[in-house]
């Protein structure tokens, strides 16, 4: 199996690349290196330096022909999202739409999308549940509230799911920490 990990040179991405390799699969990290680090990638992981918004993304997916895509690439700076909400939306919303369309065109069978639990705002109830109401407190959080299966992602992939039988899963992750952070 070949897996493409967008944001693959970032903290979670590099750990994900390592796990894919340890499971015996081929992995390509796709990262613009704006925050990720080439040296974070494990030996055996290929790297394509590219922004997820690139018009060449569809061609790259056609070339790689991945079986699965783990979409971790994001503009994740809340302060930047407040200062420049259009940039945030271009990366996090339009970048995801472009990725889903590139995956559909390349016949990708599985897409796993990582969103953020920031979509829930400052909810006091823990643990948070997928069925909890969203309450985004920043443009970054609003993009994460928008780009989950119950809203935008399912709608964007409906053609993909019926036409190509693409399986789509999304998770709203909490803040990650650990070694090599």
In short:
The chain is of the alpha/beta class and 181 residues long. The chain has helices spanning 11-22, 57-64, 78-83, 85-106, 139-146, 149-164, and strands at residues 2-6, 26-31, 46-49, 68-71, 110-116, 167-173. It has one domain: Rossmann fold (3-Layer(aba) Sandwich), CATH 3.40.50.
Order of helices and strands: EHEEHEHHEHHE
Number of strands: 6
Strand order, sheet with most strands? 3-2-1-4-5-6
Helix content: 25-40%
| Main sheet overview | 6 strands, parallel
- Tally of domains: 1
Q: What multimeric state do the chains show?
A: single chain
Could you name the CATH class? Answer: Alpha Beta
Q: What is the architecture at the second tier of CATH?
A: 3-Layer(aba) Sandwich
Q: What's the alpha carbon Rg, rounded to whole Å?
A: 16 Å
Low-confidence stretches: 151-155, 158-162
Number of helices: 6
Average residue-wise pLDDT: 84
Percent of residues in beta strands? 15-25%
Coarse morphology: globular
Distance linking N and C termini: 28 Å
User: What class do helices, strands and sheet pairing give?
Assistant: alpha/beta
CATH topology: Rossmann fold
């Amino acid at each position: 199996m070949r897996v493409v990990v967008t944001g693959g040179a970032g903290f979670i991405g590099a750990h994900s690349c390592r796990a894919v390799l340890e499971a015996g699969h081929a992995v390509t990290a796709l990262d613009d290196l704006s925050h990720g680090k080439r040296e974070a990638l494990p030996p055996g992981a290929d790297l394509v330096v590219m922004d997820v918004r690139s018009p060449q993304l569809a061609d790259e997916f056609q070339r790689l022909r991945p079986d699965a895509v783990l979409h971790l690439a994001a503009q994740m700076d809340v302060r930047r999202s407040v200062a420049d909400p259009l940039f945030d939306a271009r990366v996090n919303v339009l970048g995801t739409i472009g990725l889903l369309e590139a995956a559909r065109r390349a016949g990708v069978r599985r897409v796993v999308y990582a969103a953020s639990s920031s979509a829930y705002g400052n909810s006091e109830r823990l643990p948070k549940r997928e069925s909890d109401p969203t309450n985004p407190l920043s443009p970054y959080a609003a993009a994460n509230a928008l780009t989950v299966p119950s809203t935008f992602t399912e709608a964007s992939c409906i053609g993909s799911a019926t036409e190509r039988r693409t399986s789509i899963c999304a998770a709203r992750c909490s803040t990650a920490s650990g070694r090599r952070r």
